[in-house]
Write a structure and sequence with these properties.
Layout (H helix, E strand, L loop, with lengths): L4 E4 L11 H8 L2 E4 L3 E5 L3 H5 L9 E4 L2 H13 L9 E4 L2 H6 L10 E4 L4 H9 L6 E6 L5 H8 L4 E11 L12 E4 L2 H10 L9 E5 L1 H9 L6 E3 L7 H13 L1
Parallel strand pairs: 1-2, 1-9, 4-5, 4-7, 5-6, 7-8, 9-10, 10-11
Antiparallel strand pairs: 3-8
Helix pairs in contact: 7-8
């Protein structure tokens, strides 16, 4: 079946230069963005309840823009100013640059990878004597905590926000040819909103191993996987698939 519509389970980036928009225009597709999950802040005082003092740490691990936003929200709530000596280890340059929303980057000690988790962990390993703070959601992968424990690195896990399902009830009678998922939480939200969901002719695209595992556990078929050696981005994987079925 030909593809005419795609639903991206993320917020609309609001930038028409975003790679999904040119793809939709190029292939004459209906494109919608709709987050399947949303983030709720947790009070900064919860850190004190858990006996976590941010200023006891010398480095901070930032894996997403959400982590950046909630770190600085908590700092403001607790009226804490990180010292100029604080080090920041970011998943990629984009997250590093995003911190400029809250502080002057040129005065800070920034370290970042290219988006590969292992690359960032390698950077951390070169600074094993630091005391790391890991701001995160209540739902997160085990990779970073497991790495820090395995290498006997001093760290505190600070849960600063939680992930909850978005209300998708208005999509009950809406059909898309492809739905793109980026996390296991997206799959959970789908079935929490629509317990009787059947894939039928809908094609599913899944980003990353954990999302693919969640798709399989839900007894769905992942028709479009990324990243792969052939398709390092979801846009590339979608374009190849759609060109093939629409030919």
């Amino acid at each position: 079946m030909k593809v005419k519509s795609i639903l991206i389970s993320q917020p609309d980036p609001g930038d028409k230069k975003n790679a999904y928009y040119p793809l939709a225009e190029k292939l004459n597709l209906k494109l919608d963005f709709r987050p399947f999950i949303q983030v709720e802040p947790l009070p900064g005082k919860d850190l004190r309840k858990n006996k976590i003092n941010i200023l006891d740490h010398t480095a901070i691990i930032l894996t997403s823009r959400n982590a950046v936003d909630h770190l600085f929200r908590v700092l403001e709530e607790l009226k804490i100013e990180p010292p100029i000596t604080m080090k920041y280890f970011c998943m990629n340059e984009g997250i590093s640059l995003y911190t400029q929303k809250y502080m002057v980057m040129r005065k800070r000690k920034m370290f970042f990878g290219s988006g590969n988790e292992q690359e960032m962990l390698s950077l951390i390993k070169h600074h094993m004597k630091e005391r790391f703070l890991f701001p995160c959601s209540d739902i997160r992968k085990d990779t970073i905590p497991n790495f820090l424990k395995a290498n006997c690195i001093n760290y505190s896990e600070a849960v600063m926000y939680r992930t909850v399902n978005a209300d998708l009830s208005d999509l009950a009678d809406v059909y898309y040819d492809i739905i793109v998922f980026f996390s296991p939480a997206d799959i959970k939200s789908l079935f929490d909103n629509f317990p009787d969901f059947k894939q039928n002719n809908t094609r599913i695209a899944g980003w990353g191993k954990t999302t693919n595992d969640a798709i399989e556990q839900a007894k769905l078929v992942n028709n479009i996987s990324a990243p792969t050696a052939e398709f390092p981005s979801m846009v590339a994987a979608l374009e190849a698939y759609i060109k093939k079925v629409n030919a």
